[in-house]
Amino acid sequence: MRKIALLGAVAAITCATAAHAEPGGCLKYGAVGAVGGHVANHHTVLGAAAGCVTGMYKRHEYRKEAKAKAALYDQEHPGAKGNYEAKATAYDVEHSTTPGKMTADNPAAGTAPAAAPAAQ
Fold first, then answer.
1. What is the dihedral of CA 18, 23, 28, 29, to 10 degrees?
2. Fewest CB atoms less than 10 Å from the CB: which of 29, 54, 84, 116?
3. Count of domains in the chain?
4. Which residues form the domain of 66?
5. How many helices (H) and strands (E) does the chain have?
6. Which segment of the chain is annotated as a signal peptide (predicted)?
7. Would residue 41 be called left, alpha or beta, if left means φ above 0 and alpha means ψ between -120 and 50 degrees?
8. Where are the extended beta strands (E) located within 1-120?
9. Whole-model pTM above 0.85?
């Protein structure tokens, strides 16, 4: 019974914090790691520590990519105002990319249609 209550509480916390735009984070991944460690032979603290480190790494990678997208946006729009998060979002909208990916979802988006070969 306690396990079900613990899993329910962790699921509620995870869902409540999942609304934030940034992935990762020590609390989100740490909570999941704690549950996984507890299930895996009662290594709750070890699982929480591993989850925390993984979450911090994921968030670092996300922010690094957002700053790279903001730099690309600044090259295309000199003098643009806003923080790196707003510029990265604007870059995603203009180039049909999603957060977490530097390439377009649809590679043909934003490019001119290919010319049809001339009939002879």
1. 140
2. 116
3. 1
4. 24-96
5. 4, 0
6. 1-21
7. left
8. none
9. no
